[in-house]
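Exercise 7.
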Amino acid sequence: MAFTKSSTAILAMLLIAALAMTDVANASSFIAWSGPGCNGRAVQYRRCGCSNINEHGGYEFVYNGQTAAMYNQPNCNGVAHTRFNSGTRSCRGFGWRSMFIQC
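Solution. The predicted structure, written as tokens, is:
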């Protein structure tokens, strides 16, 4: 089977898409529990950019190269209260209402 320029281009695009999905799968993530502490319902946030946080019982930030900024207001409004550039975990309640993962 001979490859044409168009089939080679399609193959290259598929390879780039697969690599991009691998990077997203390995991105940093933030897990928030409903509580008390690190118990109850857990919600994982991995999306690049701003996400509102709905659970506030406890948290874990898994650092895989992308930093995060935590905000006391929804929609990442105001000034960042806390920044994560390494992994951390706390099973105490927290007041952050949104976060921004820098990708």
